[in-house]
Amino acid sequence: MPILNILQFPDPKLRQKAAPVAVVDDNIRTLVDDMFETMYSAPGIGLAAVQVNVLKRVIVIDISEDKSQPGCFINPEIVEHSGDEKMEEGCLSVPGIYEPVSRAKDIIVRYLDRDGNTQELSVGGVLAVCIQHEMDHLDGKLFVDYLSEMKRNRIRKKMEKMRQHTM
Ligand code: ZN
Fold first, then answer.
1. Is 99 annotated as catalytic?
2. What pLDDT is stored for residue 167 in this prediction?
3. pTM of the entire structure?
């Protein structure tokens, strides 16, 4: 399975919005498999299709340390949320940057699984944060958008500098 290229902030392609998946077919399952492979090899705990320049509402997540809890969420929707919590977040598209972001503490998410069945999951903690972070990507939003403009500009400069060094 191929490892997909992960777009890096401030690539404008990360600002694209993903469209809902109409049918969960083998093409989508292949995308999901490739996204898992890409996420694990990065390594990371979550990846949204927009990050690999595919404009479909698909995210994969595994917050375990031993790749034992792969979760794939297609057309995810938050149907209920409560509380709020500040946690430090990072992103495969903004490597090396970790900043605290406030999000809903507990959520109920409705989605299609890899067989196309509708599921509902009630979650809190890191998984809830991760789902909200990845869902933002599907609307072209990044966790740095929650930071001050000054901070975001500083991160942008840092990313651009890093890119020049690796070219
Ligand atoms: Zn991210």
1. no
2. 57
3. 0.96
